[in-house]
Amino acid sequence: MTNSVLKLPEEALKRLIAHYQNKEITTKNPHARFAAKLPDAMITVYSSGKVMFQGAGAERETAKWGVADSAKEKAATAKGDRLPPDFAKRSVLGSDETGTGDFFGPITVAACFVPAQQVELAKELGVKDSKQLTDDYMRKIAPDLKAAFTHSVLALNNEKYNQVQAQGWSQGKIKALLHNQALKHVLRKMAPEKPEAILIDQFAERNIYYKHIAKEPEIIRENVLFSTKAENLHVSVACASIIARVAFLEEMDRLSTVAGVALPKGAGAIVDEVAAKILLSRGEAFLKSITKAHFANTKKAHALAAKKKRY
User: Fold this and answer.
1) What contacts 116, CB < 8 A, 6 or more positions away?
2) What's the domain range around 19?
3) What is the pLDDT of residues 52-74, one digit of tens each?
4) Which residue among 111, 116, 216, 310 sits deepest, i.e. has the most Cβ atoms within 10 Å of its Cβ?
5) How far apart are CA 159 and CA 237, in angstroms?
6) Residues 6+ away with beta carbon under 8 Å from 161
């Protein structure tokens, strides 16, 4: 299924709504102001001014109203290695990570191979930039992705993370090692077949990345490309991102059960509050075992816990 998005001014939105008025359908989406269904396309107008076109006829309908805010536009702003024009249609092994900015929970990295003949299958299964998808939706499609594509997913738990971080490892080094390992696992699984390219969602310059993993016994170098916004450049990276995210969410579920409280994501004020409660009820050692202890949230949690003790 093809998806495309337009951002239109109010006058254009009114014309579009009038054009599809006789095809209007009821939508339960609280953010949608209008929806219409054609035999081969679904059109949804959002209160933000964006219009989503879905289905086999999406490109045709989009063309009537302007140029889509598509992955091509996002790709134009990506930084990194220069990719060939037809890169999105090639057989690519992609990798991505998540959890790096979350106080609670692990860092997870996934690598996923999508051959050229299955690029459309990935899209049919609902793959797009994970930042545009909800956690619940990713949980729903991840099993299909893992069943359809050769992949590897790794999770660095908090105790190991805190151990290597205390030894002086940066997050950049940790991520580079995990990416290299996940890529290595997928290449072994798919051998003797090889991808046309390997695309890593860039978090470090090429020379820095390889410096981080210089002492590894096996380093993946052949046809490796780096780019920011890589999820928009090939579905393999988008698949990897979704698989990594769901692995992170599942570990957060497990840790929440162990902690006896729903652990919030991120590193904001709500995280400090929950961390302080855990500190008071379970102690410092337990809190450290489920967090990235060097984050500023640790000190904030101690300060909040101290205040609660006084009252």
Assistant:
1) 89, 90, 91, 196
2) 3-67
3) 989 888 888 887 887 554 445 45
4) 111
5) 28
6) 106, 107, 174, 292
Asked whether residue 82 is domain-assigned, the answer is: no
Main-chain phi, psi angles of 13, to 5 degrees: -65, -40
Tokens of 205: 């310059």
Helix and strand numbers (H, E) in the chain are 12, 9
Residue 82 has pLDDT above 50, yes or no: yes
| d(C-alpha 195, C-alpha 193), whole Å | 7
- Tell me the pLDDT tens digit for each residue of 197-223: 999 999 999 999 999 999 999 999 999
DSSP secondary structure string for all residues of 166-223: HTT--HHHHHHHHHHHHHHHHHHHHTT---SEEEEE-SS-HHHHHHHTTT-SS---TT
- Residue 173 inside a domain? The answer is yes
In this structure, the answer to whether residues 97 and 241 fall within a common structural domain is yes
The structure's pTM equals 0.75
Q: Are 135 and 102 in contact (CB under 8 A)?
A: no
Q: List, as one string, the DSSP characters of 129-177.
A: -GGGS-HHHHHHHHHHHHHHSEEEEEEE-HHHHHHHHHTT--HHHHHHH
Residues 143-200 have pLDDT tens digits of 999 999 999 999 999 999 999 999 999 999 999 999 999 999 999 999 999 999 999 9
Annotated binding-site positions:
96-97, 201
Same domain for 283 and 153? no
CB atoms within 10 A of CB 159: 12
pLDDT on residue 80: 75
pLDDT band at 311 (very low <50, low <70, confident <90, very high): low
The C-alpha torsion from 5 through 236 and 127 to 292, rounded to 10°, is -100
Asked if residues 91 and 196 have their Cβ atoms less than 8 Å apart, the reply is yes
Report how many domains make up the chain: 3
Residues in binding site for a divalent metal cation: 96-97, 201
**Helix %, strand %, coil % of the chain (to 5):** 50, 20, 30
First to last CA, the chain: 58
